[in-house]
Amino acid sequence: MMISTDESKKKPLLSKILLLFLTAMVLANVAGNMYAGILPLYLKSLGASVGQIGLFFTLLNILPLILQILGGWISDSLGRLKSIAMGSLAGVLSYIGLILAPTWQWVFFGESLGAITRSLIGQSFGAFIAEESAEENRARVYGITQTIFLVVTVVGPR
Q1: d(CA 158, CA 33)
Q2: Looking at the 3D structure of the chain, how many domains does it have?
């Protein structure tokens, strides 16, 4: 019995668009993880007390819980790539806000834009992977991407 050429050609696990997207996301996440360790020192240099720094991080961890619902709805309504583009724009504005912040309250505003970034991109990323991967390889693709991002969170700050 002869195997057809369609069956003998195996599709790659990660498509070209998924590889490009994954590379861009890795670079963005490396950059995003590099400043987190020194953020409390930056807040202190802007005049924040220990209690204010604690409040800053408490509110900053609650905000994404609220925004993820909105991010998922935007991703479903407008499309994955549009949602990712909007999130990327909010991320750029977030970094500008961090650099130009005259007080720690302005840093909070900038980091809030960062929470918008994570809620828009984070919700769209998984859905984009699901749309771009073959059903029979989807679990492997998720495993590969999650492994890469866990490595990025460890290597990025170093």
Answers
A1: 9
A2: 1
